[in-house]
Amino acid sequence: MSMNRRKMRVASVVAGIGIVAVLAAGCARGGGTPNSTDDGGGAEASPGITDDSITLGITTPLSGPTAGPGTCTVAGITAYFGAKNADGGVEFGDGQTRTVEIEALDDEYDPQKAKANYDQLKSSVFAMTAGLGTPTNRAWREAAIADEVPQALIMTGDPIFSNQEESPWQLGFVPIYQNEGQAFGELLAGSAEEHKVAILSQNDDYGEGYVEGFMTAIEGADNIEVVKELTYEATDTSVDAQLTELAGSGADVFFNAMSITPLVISSLQKTQELGWLPSWFLPSNTSSPSAILEPGGAAAFPGVYTVAFAQSAAAPTFAESEEGAAFLEQLKEYANYPDVPAFPHCVWSYQVGATLEEVFGSMTEPTRDSFMEALRDVSGFTAPLMLEGSTVDTTEDGQPAVSTVQVQKYNGKGYAPAEAWDE
After folding, report:
1. Which of 233, 285, 333, 403 is deepest in the core (most CB within 10 A)?
2. DSSP code of 43?
3. CA 339 vs CA 14, 102, 245: distances in Å
4. For residue 90, what are the β-bridge partners?
């Protein structure tokens, strides 16, 4: 299909931009009016969907300290649907084929701005999706429930979004924080050595979830002692004081449940300055080898561990695979993202796109109710670029779309599976 037949309104997704509105472009077929169906029958269409297109909204950090992963939450899904639209669109369960438009706004990881973005988008989009952040997604969760607007497959591990009673219009995509923390704890509890653990966690649901999962996993393990536990605020620009105190604990393992990229880098550097060289556990969203570990000098530590459910675009063999090569090409062509992504969120949001296509194919009516019914009925779906053993399953109340993780250890360049504690 030639470019002059593509309906390209905006396609600009690059690191550091302040605000973006993206149309994942495709073939305009004409016909159909807003909130209508071709045969004139069936349920009345919800806002944001016509016979020819569906519009999805995203509020996510596109500037500020979390702009790197935030930008990826737009780039991946834009690349996925850009390619689908170029091939003619996505087939829906109601018999229509539609292009998928993405409108994304920058919230700078600020809850108030996230709420304002939602208010701006809610009347023109069919559903909200993919946006990054626990406090930012929580800021408009209740409003979305009241407005009956889907908040689907968002990038937060807060379990409240996967609890159907508390969040009937929500569903998280990535594993809940408790799942990640538990995986760390189980790995350490299986060690033949005794360990002293120091913990620094974000003072909100994000940090509390990681610590809860870790503590649950090590309960009863007589080889593990938590010797010091401190918190920090997501708005802090330095945690040097906490690190200095933790360094004096004598811990040989450091669980750093931190979501702010610059703080993770400076934490890696500061602990080396202090002469404290423990093994690290890092959350999946702040463990990028190129963007965090390399500038932080992580190779100086005996081990840096994280968890994953998706392939890493930075892995040496990624671009050699058919799926990896297609992903990188689509990211460049449709999301204006020419570099190999340093953050996993680009792959995650690409997988969100694939999961949404699966959901769209089961929608029998162009309504948000039909969407939510189909959203909660995905089982055993293997999205592109998933690690072996991980699948999308939205049928278990209390769990997000992806709940399985694999513990991995940094090898100086990337990550390799860590089935047991090994230093």
Report:
1. 285
2. S
3. 10, 21, 39
4. 98
What is the distance between the alpha carbons of residues 191 and 409, in angstroms, rounded to a whole number? 15
Mean pLDDT of 47-65: 97
User: What proportions of the chain, in percent to the nearest 5, are helix, strand and coil?
Assistant: 35, 20, 45
- The single-letter code of the amino acid at 313 is A
Question: Quick one: tokens of 394?
Answer: 């939205």
CA 88 to chain centre: 27
Q: Are 185 and 214 in contact (CB under 8 A)?
A: yes
Number of Cβ atoms within 10 Å of the Cβ of 220: 7
CA gap 125, 226 in Å, rounded: 47
pLDDT score, position 8: 33
CB 252 within 8 A of CB 196: yes
The rounded distance, in Å, linking the Cα atoms of 118 and 104 is 10
Instruction: Specify the residue for token string 């449709």.
Output: 334
Report d(CA 224, CA 15) in Å as an integer. 41
CB 385 within 8 A of CB 323: yes
Q: Is the pLDDT of residue 188 over 50?
A: yes
- Average pLDDT value for residue range 299-314: 94
CB 134 within 8 A of CB 158: yes
The conformation of residue 290, written as its DSSP 8-state character, comes to I
For residues 340-356, give the mean pLDDT: 96
> Strands 304-308 and 279-281, how do they pair?
parallel
Please say whether the beta carbons of 53 and 98 come within 8 A.
Answer: yes
Q: How far apart are CA 39 and CA 32, in angstroms?
A: 10
List, in sequence order, every residue forming a beta bridge with 172; answer none if it has no partner. Answer: 154
The closest of 58, 100, 11 to 332, measured between CA atoms, is 11
**Residue 193 CB coordination number (10 Å):** 10
What pLDDT is stored for residue 316 in this prediction?
82
pLDDT at 346: 97
- Residue 12: its pLDDT value, please? 40
Per DSSP, the residues of 328-362 read: HHHHHHHH---SPPSSTHHHHHHHHHHHHHHHHTT
pLDDT tier, 41 (very low <50, low <70, confident <90, very high otherwise): low
pLDDT in tens, 61-98: 999 989 999 999 999 999 999 999 999 999 999 999 99
Alpha helix stretches (DSSP H) within 248-321: 261-273, 294-296
Distance between CA 306 and CA 293 in Å, rounded? Answer: 11
Give the closest residue to 341 by CA, choosing from 77, 95, 129: 77
Give the helix/strand (H/E) hosting 140. Answer: none
